[in-house]
Amino acid sequence: MRQTKIDTAKELLIASNLTLLEISNLLSFSTASYFVKTFKEITGITPNHFRQHFFDEELHL
């Protein structure tokens, strides 16, 4: 269940301009900080770093 939410969060981070709070609410996390903590536990990086890194990689391809 958590993995599915994080996979969805990755898609939202890439495909939308939603804030972390909006994404955490959309995915039914209790707080934005819990969303960030869970995202980092599963991926090893923060949602903001993921979003920035993804676009950096895209721009350099």
- Taking all Cα atoms into account, the compactness measure Rg is 11 Å
Distance between the termini: 32 Å
Strand portion: under 5%
The chain-level structural class is mainly alpha
Short description:
Helix content is 75%, strand content 0%.
What does this 3D model show about the protein?
The protein is an all-alpha fold and 61 residues long. The protein contains four helices and no strands. The longest helix is centred in the first third of the chain and has 14 residues, at 2-15. The radius of gyration is 11 Å and the shape is globular. The termini are far apart. The model has no long low-confidence stretch (mean pLDDT 91).
Strand-helix topology:
Blueprint: H1 2-15, H2 20-26, H3 32-43, H4 47-59
Helix pairs in contact: 1-3, 1-4, 2-3
Quickly list its features.
single chain; 61 residues; globular; mainly alpha
